[in-house]
């Protein structure tokens, strides 16, 4: 048994809720003066005025209190109602400063999310909210819970050409390895963070640091990371990454070859040769198919690196944070010279990066040596257009979790039927109301963009594991067919009045939030209503 050592102030706006109350509440015997919490395997015994080890439950006057409200989404909200914290079944709504109108909302406009809903631990219990509603005349059921995820990670897409570190390199947070660099994608570096082996397979400190890093990352907070043999990075969902103390600005418009192809016609009459430096494929205009189709005269340029196809070169330099994601500070170092029988004095050469952040203009002298000159305004305008076509650099954070154990048992007594129904597209899976991609193959492996989920959707338990919301929505007939807990289905109006089924009538809090514009309505998508 454990007890959290900090006091959290226990916000007065949150009424008491005997979490996990009911027939199973007595399964954990509390010591005198404490309350027992069985919301996760840690089984805290909590003194009055203190919080459990997860900071999600606390003891207030002998009652187990859920500190976080349940988040309820509505299609549109008045400005005064957005984010409003109200109690379920307010004893005196007017005295609480709220007129109760939200409880009378059209049920096709309201969706109960798993954020703040509590869990199904121990695993034999049905989900805390099994909500019956109607959508376009169809009877629906949404099973709502917070899952305790040990098998989970975050996949992070960082829009930059900068070299962050070698593939498979370890990523550290506060000195502990918490992930690794994975395969780069077009214009972005990719990180894999967290996962069961870091949470439970290493030292106790590694697990603690990993789960704290994951919670912060999922809740859109900045996280400082260092990559073995590479860069220092600050990652925050929806924000530009900071690499070695410098905030990134642009995602490349394309590789060097693609940049040549896109802008060849605009550069044809302005330069005699163009080299777009790129860690992946460096492009050379007059050799490239685009230059040949435009009948450009060969320049006689000789490039370092490995020639792939005409006008496309691999490995012109090492990866780095310089020109085009290479280690170049001086772009001319990738030139081996010029063919004296082809090149000519006065030849105009533009060298640029794939983002236009680096660019230089040269003219060959009589000895065919490139001499830097002021860039003509017309050429500068094309370089600026390259930059204009680069999207803003962002960090994208995707939650990836395996929904097993209590999540499935909370839906049905025969979990394989839930898996089959999801694969048959009979069930819509969401995370905090946000659309979730379900990976093919066995099990229920879901992936969701944390920017489309409600803020502060993620919590932790000290086993260690991540707590995240999951909702399963389906037709009522399909729910009965998969052996769901049909006796636990309650109408939406009753849920909004009373809270979770296991609350035994005690008050609980909910927070109203407006559905993000980017998200489809969870109950309005085919094939649910097809």
* Tally of strands: 35
Mean pLDDT: 88
Structural class call reads alpha+beta
The strand order across the widest sheet is 17-16-15-14-11-12-13-10-27-31-30
Helix content: 10-25%
Extract low-pLDDT stretches. 1-26
Rg from C-alpha positions? 29 Å
The biggest beta sheet reads: 11 strands, antiparallel
Which percent band covers the strand fraction? 25-35%
Number of helices: 9
Rounded to the nearest angstrom, the distance between the terminal CA atoms is: 50 Å
- Tell me, briefly, the overall form: elongated
Task: Provide a descriptive summary of the structure in words.
- With 530 residues, the chain is an alpha+beta fold.
- Helices cover 14% and strands 32% of the residues.
- The strands form seven sheets. An eleven-stranded antiparallel beta sheet has the order 17-16-15-14-11-12-13-10-27-31-30.
- The radius of gyration is 29 Å and the shape is elongated.
- It starts with 33 loop residues before the first strand and ends in a 16-residue tail after the last strand.
- The model is unreliable at 1-26 (pLDDT under 50).
């Amino acid at each position: 048994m454990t007890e959290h050592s900090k006091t959290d102030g226990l916000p007065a706006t949150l009424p008491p809720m005997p979490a996990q109350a009911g027939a199973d509440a007595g399964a954990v015997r509390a010591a005198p003066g404490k309350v027992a919490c069985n919301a996760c395997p840690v089984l805290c015994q909590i003194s009055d005025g203190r919080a459990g080890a997860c900071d999600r439950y606390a003891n207030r006057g002998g009652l187990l209190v859920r500190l976080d409200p349940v988040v309820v989404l509505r299609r549109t909200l008045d400005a005064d109602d957005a984010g409003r914290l109200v109690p379920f079944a307010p004893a005196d709504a007017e005295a609480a400063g709220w007129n109760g109108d939200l409880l009378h909302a059209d049920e096709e406009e309201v969706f109960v999310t798993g954020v703040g809903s509590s869990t199904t631990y121990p695993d034999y219990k049905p989900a805390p909210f099994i909500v019956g509603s109607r959508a376009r005349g169809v009877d629906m059921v949404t099973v709502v819970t917070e899952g305790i995820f040990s098998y989970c990670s975050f996949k992070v897409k960082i829009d930059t050409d900068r070299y962050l570190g070698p593939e498979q390199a370890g990523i550290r947070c506060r000195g502990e390895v918490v992930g690794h660099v994975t395969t780069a994608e077009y214009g972005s570096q990719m990180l894999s963070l967290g996962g069961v082996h870091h949470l439970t397979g290493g030292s106790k400190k590694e697990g603690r640091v990993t789960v704290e890093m994951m919670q912060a990352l999922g809740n859109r907070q900045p996280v400082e990371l260092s990559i073995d043999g590479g860069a220092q990075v600050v990652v925050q969902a929806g924000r530009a990454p900071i690499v070695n103390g410098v905030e990134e600005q642009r995602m490349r418009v394309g590789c060097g070859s693609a940049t040549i192809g896109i802008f060849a016609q605009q550069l044809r009459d302005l330069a005699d040769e163009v080299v777009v430096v790129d860690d992946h494929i460096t492009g050379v205009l007059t050799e490239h198919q685009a230059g040949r189709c435009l009948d450009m005269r060969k320049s006689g340029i000789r490039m370092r690196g490995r020639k792939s196809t005409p006008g496309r070169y691999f490995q012109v330099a090492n990866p780095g944070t310089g020109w085009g994601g290479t280690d170049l500070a001086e772009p001319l170092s990738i030139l081996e010279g010029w063919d004296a029988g082809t090149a000519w004095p006065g030849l105009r050469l533009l060298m640029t990066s794939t983002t236009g952040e680096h660019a230089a203009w040269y003219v060959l002298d009589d000895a065919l040596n490139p001499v830097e000159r002021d860039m003509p305004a017309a050429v500068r305008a094309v370089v600026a257009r390259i930059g204009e076509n680069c999207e803003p650099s962002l960090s994208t954070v995707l939650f990836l979790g395996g929904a097993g154990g209590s999540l499935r048992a909370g839906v049905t007594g025969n979990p394989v039927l839930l898996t089959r129904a999801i694969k048959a597209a009979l069930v819509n899976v969401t995370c905090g109301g946000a659309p979730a991609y379900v990976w093919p193959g066995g099990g229920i492996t879901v992936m969701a963009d944390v920017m489309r989920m409600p803020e502060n959707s993620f919590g932790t338990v000290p086993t260690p594991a991540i707590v995240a919301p999951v909702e399963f929505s389906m037709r009522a007939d399909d729910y009965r067919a998969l052996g769901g807990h049909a006796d636990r289905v309650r109408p939406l109006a009753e849920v909004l009045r009373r809270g979770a089924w296991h609350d035994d009538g005690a008050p609980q809090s909910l927070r109203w939030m407006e559905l993000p514009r980017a998200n489809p309505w969870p109950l309005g998508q085919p094939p649910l209503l097809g």
